[in-house]
From TrEMBL:
Every Nudix hydrolase domain range: 115-256
Keywords: Hydrolase
InterPro entries: DUF4743 (IPR031804), NUDIX_hydrolase-like_dom_sf (IPR015797), NUDIX_hydrolase_dom (IPR000086)
Transmembrane segments: none
Keyword NAD: no
Provenance organism: Drosophila rhopaloa
Name recorded for this polypeptide: Nudix hydrolase 20, chloroplastic isoform X2
Molecular-function annotations in GO: 8-oxo-dGDP phosphatase activity
The keyword DNA-binding is annotated on this UniProt entry: no
Highest taxon in the source lineage: Eukaryota
PANTHER family reported for this sequence: THIAMIN PYROPHOSPHOKINASE, THIAMIN PYROPHOSPHOKINASE 1
Length: 278
């Protein structure tokens, strides 16, 4: 996905000598108030310098605790829209080798750290309409993307949960899919993208599963986060996913499904326009 930030506006975010994210200048000016937590220094690789979490912090727990104090202060000051969606849900910040700390999910866009999630493409093979895809409409009370159309099932990969475990959990909570159906999940790889909004930076990687469902199965929400489900023929799904009514950060997963099943081709010209308008 396209973004509009300039190189002069961002600095690498470093933990334990590893770059784990990017910080924009509008965030940096507030982090500068915490020199005991963040070291802002020059860097040979970037003229803008970098932001490093204090290397004196000894381990995962201390890094998490010190960062959490700052985030709670920033939240109480009402400085960032992203922090108004505070969830008390944690994502791990990782280097290539190990987890370095955990961070409140709502804060991750401020630091441009990669988030991982799980998505399930639920579909049926209809005798008349061919492949039809289940979509959900998010609740109007959701902190993020309220009322937008979305993939049938999706959720973030929180601390303490595995990929398949998250898929099974979200399938039950969001769509009441029983285990005797969800056990048939088929891994479809990963979809990665980079997105920017007023909340911050979103380098996302989604673990994708396909799930063929019986014709008579109708998803039912059980956690209050979905207001409706709709089963669409693939052709109608192609039209829906490219509209502003669809959640931007879920669209790539549905587009990937439609490409893999031959419903979007290179000749369609839709994908280029979608990413240009993000």
């Amino acid at each position: 996905m396209s973004t509009c930030f300039q190189k002069c506006d961002i600095r690498p975010f470093v933990v334990e000598g590893q770059q784990v994210g990017l910080i924009k200048s509008d965030v940096l000016k507030h982090l500068e108030k915490y020199p005991e937590v963040f070291c802002i220094r020059d860097c040979e690789q970037t003229k803008q310098g970098l932001v490093e979490l204090n290397p004196a912090f000894r381990d995962y727990n201390e890094r998490t605790e010190q960062l959490e104090k700052v985030l709670r202060n920033l939240r109480s000051e009402g400085l960032f829209p992203a922090l108004q969606g505070w969830r008390d849900e944690y994502f791990e910040v990782k280097s290539e080798r190990r987890a370095l700390l955990k961070m409140e999910r709502a804060a991750t866009p401020l630091f441009g750290v990669r988030k991982y999630g799980v998505d399930i493409n639920g579909y049926v093979r209809h005798p008349t309409h061919g492949i039809c895809i289940w979509l959900q409409q998010r609740s109007n009370t959701k902190e993020t993307w309220p009322g937008k159309w979305d993939n049938m099932v999706g959720g973030g990969l929180s601390v303490g949960f595995g990929i398949k475990e998250t898929a099974i959990k979200e399938a039950a909570e969001e769509a009441s899919i029983p285990y005797d159906l969800v056990k048939n999940l088929v891994s479809a790889g990963c979809v990665s993208f980079y997105f920017e909004s007023r909340q911050g930076l979103f380098p996302n990687t989604e673990y994708v599963f396909d799930l063929e469902l019986p014709l008579d199965f109708v998803p039912q929400n059980s956690d209050g986060e979905v207001q409706a489900f709709e089963l669409l023929p693939a052709k109608e799904c192609v039209e829906r996913v490219f509209t502003p009514d669809f959640k931007t950060t879920s669209a790539p997963v549905v587009i990937d499904f439609l490409i893999r099943h031959g419903h979007i081709t290179a000749d369609d010209g839709k994908i280029g326009g979608f990413y240009a308008n993000c």
